[in-house]
Amino acid sequence: MSAIVNAPPASLLAGMMLFLREVVPWKGWPTVAEILPLAGAGRSQACEMRDRIRSGWHGFLGRPGRPATEPTEGFALFAACQAVLRFVLTHPGSACGPEARTTYSDEFRRFVVALSGPGQPGEGLSVAALASACLIPLGTMKNWMHPHLSSCDRSASISEESVAAPAPGPVADETTVTLSASEASVSSSEPLFPDCIQAVHLKQIAALWKPWQGTFQAFCKMLRTEHRLHYSPTFISDFLQAARLRSRRVRTPVEAPWSSGTFRILFPGFQWLGDGTSIAVRWDTQTFVFTTESLLDSASNALVGFDVADCENEEALRRAFEAALTTTGRAPLAVTLDNKNCNHSTGAQAAVKDAVLLRATLGRGQAKAPLEGNFGLFQQEMPPLQIMGSSPREMARSALRLIFGAWTRGRNGKPRKRLHGKTPAEAYLRAQPTPAQIDEARAWIRELQRRQEQARLTREARRDPVRLKLLTKGLAELGIPDAEGRHAITLAYYSREAIVRGLAVFRSKQDLGTLPHGVDAARYLGGIIRNLDTQLEIEHTSQHLPEQRIRLRDLTLRPLQRKADEVRRETERPLRPQAFLDLALGAEYEVDFRFWSQAAGEALADLPSALSNQLYAHLCRRIAASFKTDRRRRQDLVDVLARAITATVA
């Protein structure tokens, strides 16, 4: 009874017998009609079972010997450790420092991210296992493997708990290195090594620096701790700089606050600087804009006089100069004003009385830097000028005069280090220049006048006579006075087409009555001609730019194309996107970056859809791990890769 219960199904027995009848050459086999009633199965079930046995009998057999052991996670961890060790040995300095403050280079981060890619030793490992194998903090590894591309800088600052160093490689920042007492004594005492030994050490330092990818500070520490080369960081930096193995970042010197050769500080009362600035006053529901004309002594930095006016004009200059005379008691030897027409007219010369009127250097705002700086301080230190009430404009003007006067008194009473503890007011009032100083100052003023006149003659000599004649006649027809020809000389800098169009536009505005009320006609015409000249220049540039761009592309892309062809020959097809991506991340010039980005996108789009989607996530992790690459470039690379896989899907 048990044999009947455990017997295989009738269809299976029938199928096996039919299959054996086909494959075993025995003449004693019963016929199909005899097998079916013997097994107790129907024809259709028996034939179906026979077909299933025929198609799957290969799977019943196994390979001889013990079954192969699948690689475990331990083998993958060991392979990842080996790969990291090999990379660090061939790239010294790519990962250095104590565990709490380890410094990683961009190349090392990209290498670690690549370990989890397809076909790499770390494929299939979890983030925690890979972090343990590479001795990288788990939080740092998570930021590398799962970046938030919309906040790359924030991820960089978090994951860079161990990345606190300037750019790696030969070009690095100058960082301050704190030495111990014993180390500091080396840099300040006699040389520790004789010349013959030092030469050998210098060769060793050069050989160690060439493959170094860490920071300069870490390199100096490595020399002291690992190679017993106790040289100061300054000595090492100077040697590498002299050997052209390392370039310090050029520190831009602070530009002088005035133009070279046109501004000299001699004594208080030698030269005043004058300028105006606009200040808005909100009075109840109305806002009024005034111009404060100020005069400042260049030597003492004292603000000697000012006036609040509706606009910058001769009358405002006269009132400011009279206020300065009341403050100081005497006029200066010279007054420097900017090149506005109202500052150098006959009325302006009469306003400054006995002082020589000088022009500020054209195109150089630094020529009046002390006064401009004081305007900036006023804007920073004063609160918003909001006076509530229903008073008219003159009351607002009076309030501004009081506020500016109070600030001036406070400023002039503040001691200055440059004046050896004296206030600007004290420095000015106590100044007693000697006759020799006054003679020197007068000689310098005459020299400035000579330079200005020479510059004017030079500019006039360079003018196109056709443009000068055109402007002289055009200004006369427009009713713009130009007795000395200064306006014509100034505007003759611009192209003939701009001058012709500008005169026509101004004339049409005169005829139609659309000129702004009270406008300075010469300045308004100059603005029209200047804008037209800029427009024409842009139009002509746009016509020639494509030709130059094509020429630039031919000159710059030729070596890049040869390099790309070499990469395609020597790199397998699935690895080409990563190779081009690394070249884009390391590109120095923008045209190189664009070229390699396009090559990476084309290489990714050339792969099958399934593989390109898998590589896309891996390449994005490599991009996000390159913290020292410009953020805009990283975003552009991600966009190029995204468009590549989108085109593949489409």
Explain what you see.
There is one protein chain. The protein is α/β, with parallel strands linked by helices and 650 residues long. It has six domains: 59 residues, no CATH class; 87 residues, no CATH class; 78 residues, no CATH class; 122 residues, Ribonuclease H-like superfamily/Ribonuclease H (Nucleotidyltransferase, domain 5, 2-Layer Sandwich), CATH 3.30.420; 71 residues; 79 residues, no CATH class. 57% of the residues lie in helices and 8% in strands. The chain has 27 helices and ten strands. The strands form three sheets. Strands 5, 6, 7, 8, 9 and 10 form a six-stranded mixed beta sheet that branches. Helix 25 packs parallel to helix 27. It is elongated, with a radius of gyration of 42 Å.
End-to-end span in angstroms? 66 Å
Looking at CATH, the homologous superfamily of the largest domain is Ribonuclease H-like superfamily/Ribonuclease H
Give a count of the beta strands, DSSP E runs of length 2 or more: 10
CATH class of the largest domain equals Alpha Beta
Going by helix content, strand content and strand pairing, the class is: alpha/beta
Q: Unreliable runs, pLDDT <50, ≥5 residues?
A: 1-5, 148-193, 252-262
Largest beta-sheet characterization: 6 strands, mixed
Mean pLDDT: 75
Helical residue percent band: 55-70%
Total tally of structural domains = 6
CATH fold-level label of the largest domain:
Nucleotidyltransferase, domain 5
Could you tell me the radius of gyration in angstroms? 42 Å
Shape: elongated
Number of discrete helical segments: 27
CATH architecture of the largest domain: 2-Layer Sandwich
- Strand content bin: 5-15%
